[in-house]
Design goal:
Helix content: 25-40%
Number of strands: 9
Oligomer: single chain
Number of helices: 10
Largest sheet: 8 strands, parallel, barrel
Order of helices and strands: EHEEHHEHEHEHHEHEHEH
Strand content: 15-25%
Distance between the termini: 26 Å
Radius of gyration: 17 Å
Length: 259
């Protein structure tokens, strides 16, 4: 089961804006998500971490230094402390003062507008099924009525197991993790974790995995593709969707291939 798109052109291919339209805006910020919608993306991909006071926030790195004016680990900051940081200046002066958004803010924006791939970051995952980032994220998805428009994913297979235990009908994708996978094929992994899709890098989509995916009719999403020729090749191969920092370019390529 895959999420329903709010805007689907019927070509059986999903244009996913990686951390929003992150080639043009600071990643994982509201301008990047608004830009993705304006560029015709069908889904946004966001990364979810937890503040020290247990609020799901949208940010990729475990540490703050590269993409804010903060220092140290994100998990050591409360939401109020995170909200004081500048998450835009690193990208360009015109984005000075941009804030780290909460998951709730992003879902508020996305509702009735664009589907969301929520990637649960490994740093936020624990062995506990209840009370953690997965359950809190699920509660917010339910609050905004987006159960049919969200795809959860994680490199940490515990997160997928937790999501499926808490909400068996919630679409979830395994992000291929070579260490955890122990040489299992996509079909074995998807079966072992009751996942609905398989996500991997274009380098990991080798012939053996592609054959297995096709044989078992598994939806496959490929990250992070910004080069036109590579986009074209993957769309022709019949992948389900591609994550790109340039959703505008990906949309044009997909339209030209699928004419």
């Amino acid at each position: 089961m895959l999420p329903t798109l709010y805007s689907d052109n019927g070509d059986n291919f999903i244009v996913i804006a990686h951390r929003g339209a992150s080639a043009y805006f600071p990643e994982n910020t509201m301008p990047a998500f608004r830009g993705a919608v304006e560029m015709g993306a069908e889904m946004i991909e966001i990364d979810v971490m937890m503040s020290s006071d247990g609020v799901p926030v949208v940010f990729h790195d475990a540490t703050l230094a590269d993409h804010t004016n903060g220092e140290g680990e994100l998990a050591d900051y409360s939401l109020d402390e995170l909200r004081e940081l500048d998450a835009g200046s690193w990208f360009g002066a015109e984005f000075a003062g941009e804030k780290i958004p909460t998951l709730e803010e992003v879902l508020q924006f996305a509702r009735d507008r664009i589907a969301v791939n929520i990637e649960i970051k490994t740093e936020a995952v624990t062995d506990q099924e209840r009370g953690g980032v997965e359950e809190k994220s699920l509660e917010l998805v339910r609050k905004y009525g987006m159960e049919d428009h969200v795809l959860f994913s994680s490199f940490d297979y515990r997160a997928i197991a937790h999501i499926k235990a808490l909400e068996p009908t919630m679409p979830a994708a395994l992000l291929y993790n070579s260490q955890t996978s122990n040489k299992r094929l996509p079909s074995q992994l998807v079966a072992d974790y009751s996942a609905d899709a398989f996500n991997c890098s274009y380098k990991q989509l080798n012939r053996k995995r592609l054959r297995d995916i096709r044989l078992h009719n598994i939806p496959v999403f490929v990250y992070t593709v910004n080069q036109q020729q590579r986009m074209k090749k993957l769309v022709k191969m019949g992948v389900t969707g591609i994550f790109s920092d340039k959703p505008d370019l990906l949309r044009k390529v997909a339209e030209s291939v699928n004419k």
